[in-house]
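Quick question, first post here. What does this chain look like in 3D?
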Amino acid sequence: MAFGWIDEQAELRRMAGLVRTLRPRAAESPLLDLASNDYLGLARHPEVTEGAARAARTWGGGSTGSRLVTGSTELHAELEGELADFCGFEAALVFSSGYAANLAAVTALAPHGSLIVSDAGNHASLIDGCRLARGTTQVAAHADPDAVRKALGGHEGPAVAVSDTVFSVDGDAAPLTGLAEACREHGAGLVLDDAHGLGVLGDGGRGAPHAAGLAGADDVVVTVTLSKSLGGQGGAVLGPSRVIGHLVNAARTFIFDTGLAPAAAGAALAALRLLRREPARAARAGEVARELHTRLTAAGLEAVRPDAAVVSVRAPSPEQAVRWAADCRAAGLSVGCFRPPSVPDGVSRLRLTARADLSGAEIERAVRVIGETRP
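> Answer (accepted):
Ran it through. Tokens below.
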């Protein structure tokens, strides 16, 4: 029978407590949201939604084609210019998603004969980029510049190290200065996914590479998403102009994908301008994360100290993590639930995302619910 193996796989997932289901949400929800990636609380901000609406009214509902045909508008160029300027890079290139941006950066910058050194804790999009690239991939120990240095030392030819700046599971930060030093010792490039750093870290939310003094370096390329701190959708690659020009000509997820919808570009641009005007939002997201961590650990829970806005709380098992998240939801709190294979260490956890617009009362309520529903 065609696709008969699917039933066997479904049963294995069920037995392991790893079944995933869609849960469509209503436009308005009574739940306190600590599950989304809306770090700055901008997804519903009037300026951001108006930016999306104005762009749709001006440019239409879709971009109408790939960026190289009809999918590039003046709005896309405006967003790219302001994003590059804000983050401190020469140029930027906008994609339909952060996932597409990561695939583009890794595959286009790792040709045949090159070496990719990938952190063991990297996001799935970076891992898939490594799989699709023509170069050879070597996985390095998590957040370990010496492991990267050793891998690069055993290779002759083009090489690139690839890492998240803030890892999405535990919210821990990569040692960016150490990684850059290891790469420079061997003439290798450095590709950093700043999905969880933009809008939270650096001066006014300019990102982790900016905070580490790597912004604008000719050997550093950064990818970002527009769907987290900027409250929209899409992604971008930032870097030297010659690298961005290479992506325009070589990145398959740029050449063959339909361009980002104007409404998403308009929303991201409005959010970026708002962040420039209100830089304290970035610092507040970090404050909320640290307060959540302090209160959770004081309540006897095993929480990982956050380096940005992600707070991870360990659970005993996948099944108990699912039940814990469901019990939180029943008590009015929405939290993330990360289980294998989404977690590289095999440890299931609740994943909380701090938002700059959370009040003290909401933080207290979240901690109380998590503590009362713990397995």
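The CA atoms of residues 35 and 335 lie 4 Å apart.
The first strand starts at residue 32 and ends at 34.
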